[in-house]
Amino acid sequence: NKLKSSLTKTRKSFTEKIEQLVIGYADINEECLDELEEILISADVGVHTTMKLMDDVRAGIKKKEINSPQDLQPFLIKRIGEILSTGEDKACIAQTGPTVLLVIGVNGVGKTTTIGKLAKYYKNKNKSVILAAADTFRAAAIDQLQIWGNRANADVIAHTEGADPAAVVFDALKAAISRKADILIIDTAGRLHTKANLMDELNKIYRVIKREIPDAPHETLLILDATTGQNAIHQAELFTKAAPISGVILTKLDGTAKGGVVIGIKEQLAMPVKWIGVGEGEDDLQPFDAEDFATALFE
Ligand code: GDP
Question: What is its EC number (predicted)?
């Protein structure tokens, strides 16, 4: 299956190394534990989460739940499975009226592509979709969104380059309400180097949304690029200061060895992972399922 093949490199850098570790040691000693720590760190699980897992392992040894290297693997599978399945990962849908999805993230993480994939996903479920091109900073971003909109057969609300993003959002909300759209997906600019501007812009967009639809946005989705590993966690920390994030979409899990970052996002940031990107195609977006993910990682 697609998820399993996407995680091939992560499995090589993580699961297979743990299997080798188990074979390589007769007893659990400090050297064996150091090596385990190395494996977790190099799979981009993150320092914080690695330390937590190592504490768990040491406690497991004390409690005699872990008596030999062979016991390490099932112990870790169980513990990581628990971390992955914390929190509500299911995407939220409005009770009445349009579901508003506000999409944020740094340029290049795959924001536009992901919005296109989301549009396609909901279209396939017979939902009507409108896209709002509120990244008005780059003309290319508006064009790209139009292309994805055409592909998914979704209307795109766009102004010209340099227009006020909040005005685009206002028009898109009006259109979504009057056309009785099911889903409105809002693209936003991702210039993190002008952090103050970004926060102002997001705040303004937020206020416009709340004024038109008080219980929206139903999701504020942060797009993170799995290939950036720990940097993704750092970005998430910065963005939490700009907007209340309801979930993460982790892109580019295919072809990276850094898939362990999912564990760090869930454990360290306690953020739900709502979707994962597993390729460049329009169907390469999957709802995140903790059990499927753990199975694909370990089996
Ligand atoms: P944006 O600047 O954040 O809007 O990024 P784009 O949507 O333009 O995507 C940047 C690049 O990442 C493009 O080449 C996409 O095809 C690629 N991309 C996006 N999502 C994925 C994914 O899940 N897997 C892979 N392999 N590539 C992706």
Answer: 3.6.5.4
Per-residue pLDDT band for 192 (boundaries 50, 70, 90) equals low
- Overall pTM > 0.90: yes
143 three-state secondary structure: helix
Task: Evaluate: CB of 116 within 6 angstroms of ligand 1.
Answer: no
The answer on whether 22 is annotated among ligand-binding residues is: no
Find all residues with CB under 8 Å of 58, minimum gap 6, and list them.
33
Asked if residue 292 belongs to a known ligand binding site, the reply is no
CB contact at 8 A, 181 and 130 = yes
Contact criterion met (CB below 8 Å) for 273 and 241: no
Ligand 1, atom 19, lies closest to the CA of 110
| Secondary structure E strands in the chain | 99-104, 129-134, 155-157, 183-188, 219-225, 247-251, 273-277, 285-287
Q: 15 labelled as ligand-binding? A: no
